[in-house]
């Protein structure tokens, strides 16, 4: 597999970006969430390359091996969106397919709503349209308690790091991936960077208008998700007038790309090649 991981100067910062597959293949941008990096796509990337796609999988700012930024405001959505548009520009890509999970999916919605001309289609894993998230009811607020907990800044970091990070470990409930997550977030500044995604964007997230997506969208929800309810995804159909497809993964947890890799990969390959 033709793969390289490069440190690229993008939008004034250094992003760690995995590039794989033929340069003339249909490009696919993969965006990870919290507390992940581009390796959350490790089962999907080889299959996408085998199918002929050109894969672009960055560590988003402050995550993985991408550059840390000093201020909470550095992680505002306008910067996150600008990073990915600048990355596409750097690679000379006018339009790509987009697949994104968790916080990557939140960025993905912002990208397709603000720059629909740059995306062919969007596959949102776990997280629905931001307007729908805020209107998914009391159960979603209960499941999303950590969003508000992270607003406490240093206190949240201290609590999560207690007992050699076992408090954070218990919250995630994802034992197989824990060694990698602990290694990443034990590095100075990395947890704060991930936390800043929530702190910098909460108010605007809740103020998100019901802006319709002007490209086709596929939503995928897993029924054992610890952080999200199904309603926030299914409501998104109302805001996807250019085409909506919905898939439900029974008994699969939040990290669907790792917990059910074959099923997620099959859905990706089917949706990315399907005619619009």
Key traits:
single chain; 276 residues; alpha/beta; 41% helix; globular
Question: What's the pLDDT, averaged over the residues?
Answer: 96
List low-pLDDT spans: none
Class from helix and strand fractions: alpha/beta
Sketch the major β-sheet: 8 strands, mixed
Task: Give the H and E element order.
Answer: EEEHEHEHEHHHHHHEHEHH
In the sheet with the most strands, the strands line up as 1-2-4-3-5-6-7-8
Distance between the termini: 29 Å
Percentage of residues assigned to helices: 40-55%
Number of strands: 8
Tally of alpha and pi helices: 12
Q: What amount of the residues lies in strands?
A: 15-25%
Outline: globular
Nearest-angstrom radius of gyration? 17 Å
Describe the structure.
α2 (77-90) crosses α3 (103-114). The chain has 12 helices and 8 strands. The longest helix is centred in the middle third of the chain and has 19 residues, at 154-172. An 8-stranded mixed β-sheet has the order 1-2-4-3-5-6-7-8, sandwiched between helices. α3 links the parallel β5 and β6 (119-125). It is of the alpha/beta class. The chain has helices at residues 44-50, 77-90, 103-114, 130-133, 138-143, 145-149, 154-172, 178-185, 190-206, 231-234, 256-259, 261-273, and strands at residues 3-10, 13-20, 27-31, 54-58, 96-101, 119-125, 217-224, 244-253.
